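Bench log. Compound arrived from synthesis this morning; before running ITC I wanted a structural hypothesis for how adenosine-2'-monophosphate sits in the protein. Inputs:
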Amino acid sequence: MSSAVADFGLIGLAVMGQNLILNINDHGFKVCAFNRTVAKVDDFLENEAKGTEVIGAHSIIEFVSSLKRPRKIMLLVKAGAAVDDFIETLLPHLEEGDIIIDGGNSHYPDTQRRYEYLTSKKILFVGCGVSGGEEGARYGPSLMPGGNPEAWPHLKPIFQAIAAKAPDGAPCCDWVGEGGAGHFVKMVHNGIEYGDMQLISEVYHIFRNGVGFTDDEQSDIFAQWNKGVLDSFLIEISTDILRFKDADGQPLLEKIRDAAGQKGTGKWTAIAALDYGMPVTLIGEAVFARCLSSIKDERVRASKILSGPTNNKYTGDKAQLVKDLEQAMYASKIISYAQGFILMREVSHQFNWNLNYGSIALMWRGGCIIRSAFLGDIKNAFDKNKSLECLLFDPFFQQATTTAQSGWRNAISTATLIGIPIPALSTALSFYDGYRTARLPANMLQAQRDYFGAHTYELEDKPGNFVHTNWTGRGGNVHASNYDA
Ligand code: 2AM
């Protein structure tokens, strides 16, 4: 092939790559496909892509020369070395202003590094979070592109055409921000997904073990909740899961071993929160809850010797508890998203990414696992105030947490009294109570640190002025470098 005919090039013909190509083709753009194992190109053209406008290349040179300029090349290959290898392979054949998009599951520091490297080579690099799985890739993913903003006008018509659409028709794709922002935002999305899933699991635990609702009864409650403030994909699928029967007519859910797996993106979010000193407690608890679940054998041994409260059943008004838990889940979700957004705010600030918060909420409204009606309210909050410090400062969410508060506290007391673990629900309330406290007991921490380690402290009326006290009257001058805490 000698002429540049293709609008878009895609490397990586696993299912995600194939489906994205077919999606782009459906929207009237000509795509050229390439893959490390070249045989897969012909295989794809003869099968899944048969009868479409998709073309294939059998070498990098053929691939690159098939693309119209500026070339738009998406990599959908295994995260890690494969991305760097393809970048190196492509570089000698590209020209200034060509665009490389990494649509894989790269960790954001790698994306930031590649962005800086390719900027130095005058190639426009974009790290794009792709959410929605194989089905999303084929019929409408949520796309979170970030990197070099000069690339965006060239990508926008294609990306917004193929992306999922929110219920009001808006595409679930917009420019996220600079550098590694796209993959960072995708990672936070996955962390929030861990949190939402954990909240639903805790409510299920209370319903099943504390109240004694059957799975069908719970499915009815979730179906009802899905018509209100909790309207979301995860509540919808949980409704189906609770209803699903195995071949013997029993709920399949109850036969599934309670040991959760994880692929690491929740953990990455929690690590980023620790690295940047941001209290993203709900995602952290959601990751640890999976860790606790996975030491199943140890828990089974502990369950035989450790006692809980004598009364482990809820004996109050069931309808009231259902209402309280709906409020508790809603308020906890608000906290979790508020935490996710303050993490994004902090990291964006550190890297100068200029994150576009309203658009992020919009991108998550369709096509991805955390899609929900609630994200429309978050979008509205950022539309009203682009530099909103925290969701909890928005009047809508301030009112929502105030309204939810008594049910939230009741639900948490109930679960605590009957001994059902609620790490996510309860950390959300602790965060809320801490966040709304002007004076926390950290003065005690500072005094202790100064007492044993001479780490110094500030006085309330002289912030910025660090002083040390000789608390015991003994010893000489202790220096902060002697001890660390
Ligand atoms: P393959 O078909 O040649 O294995 C998902 O695994 C995609 O990433 C596939 O297209 C796969 O190519 C590609 N891939 C995985 N590891 C790779 C590597 N080290 N170099 C290039 N492509 C790789």
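What the model suggests: The chain has a mean pLDDT of 96. The first strand starts at residue 8 and ends at 11.
ITC booked for Thursday regardless.
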